[in-house]
Amino acid sequence: MTISTLRGIVGYYVIPQLSVGAGIGFNSYIKPGLNTIPVCLDLRYHPFDNKKFSINGNIGYTIATSENDLNGKFMSDISLGDKVLNLGKLSLVPSFGYNFINYSVENEKKLNQYRHSLFLKIGLIY
Is residue 61 predicted with pLDDT exceeding 60? Predict the structure, then answer.
């Protein structure tokens, strides 16, 4: 299953190592041909003082899907990232992670479906 994601997140560092934020985005899954709009809480933790390495987690809910008979549900992902390029206030952060999405199909029988994915993402941090 291929996933394409575009997500915007606004966060605030509550302590120097931990950022808490909220985001909204767009996910596209090639199989089963599903597009979703997730709303999520974003947590970003930097275990080292230089803030190059980060552990990132998102947890949320899918508020809309591309199909009339599909209802969005729970979504989450977790990733590990490392800043590879720092251009003043703009940074490039590639990450590797795991994604989980749950949705239900409304037809004669209500089917509860879920998808697990491994992903590689490129993040821009400002």
Answer: yes
CB 11 within 8 A of CB 44: yes
DSSP string, 37-55: EEEEEEEEE--STT--EEE
Average pLDDT score, the chain: 86
Cα separation, 58 vs 78, whole angstroms: 6
User: CA nearest 3: which of 21, 30, 25, 38?
Assistant: 30
CA dist., res. 81 & res. 58, Å (int): 14
- Which sign does the torsion angle of CA 116, 118, 121, 126 carry? positive
Nearest-angstrom CA–CA distance, 1 and 116: 9
